[in-house]
Amino acid sequence: MKKDDYYPIIFKRKSIRNYDLNPLDNNNLKEISEEVDNLIPLFSNIKTEIKIISTEDVKQRFMKKAPHYLAVFSDTSEGYLTNVGFMLQQMDLFFSSNGIGSCWQGIPIPKAEILNGSNLKFIILMAFGKPLDPLYRDSVNEFKRKPIEKISKVNGADNLLEATRLAPSATNSQPWFFTGNDTAISVYSIKPNFLKAMVVNKYIPIDVGISIYHLKVAAEHFGKKIQIIFDKDEKKDSPKGYTYYATLKFSME
């Protein structure tokens, strides 16, 4: 399997919900397992565990079955959900670039024996397998996303932010917001209203982690060196209605 520049994949990937339930061959699963072992965390101090499990290991809760799932577990240190989003989106793009369908799934949960097999907290599943639907979108126009001006106050970095604009999010809520310029972009989420918060609050930090990874992929595609920092002053001075997550600083290689 290949691990190339994921930037072009961002513009055509989609969530796959219909799968051939025949399992992938052992060689594919071995390579997927190796990829999981080499994921890059956003926070190196947070302990995570990602298991490959089968459809028999999952309580579907009315969702369609997939032959395989990644079950993600984590400790609950500060930033753990954002870290999960950042890490698991690496697998979403890896799958898509290798002809495998995948989909974040927040409703199904592993069965008790899987949950009891980890000392960490279960976070989320990602379904994967051979797709029965077309793997890719025909056009970027198929994405239902907010325009850049609705998610950003950044000038001169649309080539980077377009990749974050197209990132997946729970219920397509697109909670991210960006400020800065073409040398440093700060990442926030917009605090939802009460009713929406009841549905998406758990997933907002995960979604923001996904968007940070897409921003990283875009910056690397355009030859930029990236430093991800967590600015305490930026967090303290966050605009009303926004939650600060991180700042990405860019320089040319």
Structure description:
Strand 7 and strand 8 form a beta hairpin. The radius of gyration is 18 Å and the shape is globular. The protein has 9 helices and 10 strands. By secondary structure, the chain is of the alpha+beta class. The chain has a 4-stranded antiparallel sheet, covered by helices on one side. Strands 7-8-10-9 form a 4-stranded antiparallel sheet.
Short structural summary:
With 253 residues, the protein is of the alpha+beta class. It is built from nine helices and ten strands. The radius of gyration is 18 Å and the shape is globular.
Mean pLDDT: 93
Number of helices: 9
Spatial order of strands in the largest sheet: 1-3-6-4
What class, by secondary structure content? alpha+beta
Relative strand content? 15-25%
Number of strands: 10
* Major sheet details: 4 strands, antiparallel
* Morphology call: globular
Question: Unreliable stretches, pLDDT < 50, 5 or more residues?
Answer: none
Our measurement of the CA-to-CA distance between the termini, rounded to an integer number of angstroms, reads 27 Å
Percent in helix = 25-40%
Order of helices and strands: HHEEEHEEHEHHEEHHEHE
Radius of gyration: 18 Å
SSE topology sketch:
Layout: H1 7-10, H2 26-37, E1 48-54, E2 58-59, E3 68-74, H3 80-97, E4 101-105, E5 109-110, H4 112-115, E6 121-129, H5 148-151, H6 158-165, E7 176-180, E8 184-190, H7 194-200, H8 204-221, E9 224-229, H9 232-236, E10 242-252
Antiparallel strand pairs: 1-3, 2-5, 3-6, 4-6, 7-8, 8-10, 9-10
Question: What features would you highlight for this structure?
Answer:
alpha+beta, 4-stranded antiparallel sheet
